[in-house]
């Protein structure tokens, strides 16, 4: 089923990919900008379920006039937070207690064009996806690149988000190909190579027109038993059993995950989701086996400014305010962004 949100998501990500391959960046046609603006107006209608007791504030700012941040990752050892710019691939670092982030990896480092998904693994290495190419891994102490893995060939791809399981294996979504890539610890130790497909989720997806954007955020349980990936167009949550390879839809009770972008799964089974175009965050209770999820809270607020990803820590959830609709990927050439920030949300 094609929804208005789904139509927008397809156009939006197509704009992203085109921007990554050709540098006139976000400048498309006026007709496309108009269509995106209209789609955003429909998609961003407020939800009736507002969590009025949740408090939204600014955790820190990101320097730059056209940052358009996308991914976020926290390092639990140092409490440092990393944020990636979709616009040019800059990776920012926010140290504990600082109100302004600093540049950690400058734009163009190692040829990186974008910075989408970010994760810090158990050994303190920072993984950064480039939607146009693949993923690179960096030493957080020095900024040295440790490894790089690129998708082979020239077919369209959109490497989006990633998760790292307890055994050190990384899994990454591709929004155009509906596949999940895998990087093993042995491959990481080798320093690079092709980014290979581990799971094809297309047979489990609901029928969509060719070129529809599907997979986006991904997470995994703390025991390393399964992956969860969101189909942002259909609003489904897909479960991949890492022992058998079986792919199934998670039974969602009380809502759906349309426009779902970033996922964060806590050890207690709480799943938090950023829904980008609707300026919404949701909280779900996941069963221990990851087969059912029940909606427990919804927070919709325009001050979230198109939230793309989130990272939960005790006491607060950090949420990326992308402002993609202010002259960014959702409305190229139109709109003026305000200061780019990361929000701190309490009570989610």
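^ structure tokens above, recovered residues below v
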């Amino acid at each position: 089923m094609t929804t208005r949100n789904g139509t927008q998501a397809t156009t939006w990500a197509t704009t992203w990919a085109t921007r990554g391959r050709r540098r006139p960046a976000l400048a498309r046609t006026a007709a496309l900008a108009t269509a995106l603006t209209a789609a955003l107006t429909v998609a961003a209608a407020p939800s009736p379920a507002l969590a009025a007791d949740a408090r939204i504030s600014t955790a820190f700012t990101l320097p730059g006039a056209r940052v358009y941040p996308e991914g976020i990752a926290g390092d639990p050892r140092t409490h440092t937070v990393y944020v990636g710019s979709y616009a040019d691939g800059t990776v920012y670092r926010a140290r504990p207690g600082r109100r302004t982030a600093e540049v950690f990896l400058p734009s163009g480092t190692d040829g990186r064009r974008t910075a989408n998904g970010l994760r810090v693994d158990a050994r303190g290495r920072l993984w950064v996806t480039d939607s146009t190419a693949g993923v690179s891994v960096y030493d957080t102490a020095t900024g040295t690149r440790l490894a790089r893995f690129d998708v082979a060939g020239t077919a369209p791809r959109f490497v989006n988000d990633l998760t790292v399981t307890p055994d050190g294996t990384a899994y990454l979504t591709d929004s155009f190909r509906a596949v999940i890539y895998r990087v093993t610890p042995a491959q990481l130790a080798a320093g690079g190579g092709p980014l290979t497909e581990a799971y094809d989720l297309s047979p489990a997806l609901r029928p969509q027109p060719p070129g529809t954007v599907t997979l986006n955020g991904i997470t995994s349980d703390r025991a390393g038993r399964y992956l969860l990936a969101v189909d942002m167009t259909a609003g489904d949550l897909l479960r991949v059993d890492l022992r058998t390879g079986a792919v199934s839809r998670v039974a969602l009770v009380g809502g759906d995950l349309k426009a779902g972008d970033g996922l964060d799964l806590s050890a207690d089974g709480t799943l938090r989701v950023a829904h980008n175009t609707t300026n919404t965050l949701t909280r779900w209770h996941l069963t221990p086996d990851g087969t059912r999820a029940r909606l427990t809270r919804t927070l919709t607020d325009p001050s979230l400014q198109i939230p793309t990803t989130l990272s939960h820590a005790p006491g607060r959830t950090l949420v990326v305010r992308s402002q993609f609709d202010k002259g960014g990927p959702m409305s190229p050439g139109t709109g003026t962004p305000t200061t780019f920030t990361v929000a701190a949300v309490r009570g989610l």
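The first helix runs from residue 4 to 21.
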